[in-house]
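Because showing beats explaining, we let one protein speak, sequence and C-alpha cells together, and leave readers to judge.
___
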Amino acid sequence: MDDQHKGGELPPDQTPNVVYPDDPESALHPDIDPPMPRALASGGGTRTPPPPPPTDDEDDEDSGMLRMSFMEHLEELRSRLIRALVGFGVAFLACLIFAGQLWDYVQAPGLAAFKTIGRGGFIAIDPMEQFSIIWMWTPLVASLFIASPWVIYQVWAFISPGLYPRERRWAVPFVLCTAGLFITGGLFAYFIAFRFALTFLFNIGGPMGVLPLISIDKYFDLFVNVMLGISLVFELPVLIFFLTLIRVASPSFLLRHSRYAILAIVILAAVITPTPDVFNLTLFAVPMILLYFMGVFASYLLVMRRENRRFPWRMFVYWALAVIAVLIICVAIAIARFNYHFVLRWPFLTK
C-alpha cells in the first residue's frame, strides 16, 4: 500500500459516492426500507432532507386568502370608512326626525330621580343649550347605538381579507356579539345603573336644604359618560376572546390571574361610577366581573375547538334550564303569596 493509502486518503477515482434512497442499486443494506445511503453507512456527511410539501388543506387555506397591495388596503379602508359613515348618517337623519321623543327618553331617568326625592328639575342656562342638546347631541348619541351593527360589520369586512376562510366564519357571531353587548351595556346603564346614581346624587344635599336644579348640558354630559362607558366595558368578553384567538392569552392564564383582573375591574368601576357610595360601586363592578368570566368561558370554548374536543352542551343546557326553572318558581311564589308585581325599573319586582 502506498503512502497515500496509509494516510487514509483515497485516490480521486475512488472517492465515495453519496447515494440517497431513491437510488436502489447503490444501497449497502438492501433489506432496510428505505435503503441506507452509502455515505451515511461509511461515516460520511449527511444531507438535510427537503421540507415536506404543503398539505392540501394548507394549499386550500392559502388560496382562500386574498392578496392585496398597500394601495389596495388603503382603497379598501377608504371604502369601508365611507360605507360606515353613510350608514351612520342615515341613522342620524332618522334619529333627528324623532329628536323630541328621544329627549323624553334621555331625561326620563332624571325626572324619575326628581320624583323620588320630591323636588328639583332641569334648567337651560345658555340660549343655544336646548338646541344643541335636544336637536344635535341627543340624535348623535342615539345613532351611535342604532348604527353600531353596521359599523362593526364594516370593521370586520376590512380585516376579513387577511383571515383564513375558516376564520371568516366568525363574521356573524362577531357582529352579533359585539353589537349585542354594546347595546346591552347601554340598556343596563339606562335602566339600572344611571337611575340609582341620579337618585343618590340629586338627594345628597337634601338634608342641607340644597334644591337640585340641573342644567341639561351637565345632565347630558353625565348621561353620555355613563352610557358609553358601560357599553364599552360590556365589550370585555369580545376582547378576551380575540386575545385568545391570537394566542396572547389563554383560559388558564386568565383564571390564574383573575384576582388582579377583579382588582382592575373594581378600580375601573370606581372611575366610571358617578357616585362614591359602595352600593353603586358594587352595582357597576359585579356585572363587569361576570363579563370577565364570560369571556374566560368563551376563550375556553375556543381552546377546546382547537384541540378537537367537544363541550358537554347537553349537560350545560340541563343545568341552565334547571336554574331558570328555579327562578321562575321563586318569582311565581313572590307574586302569588307575597303580593309582588312587575315594574319597568330595577329591581323589576316590587310590592
Notes: The beta strands are 121-123, 213-215, 341-342, 349-350. The chain has three domains: 11-40, 70-318, 319-351. Confidence is low (pLDDT under 50) at residues 4-8, 18-33, 36-46, 56-64.
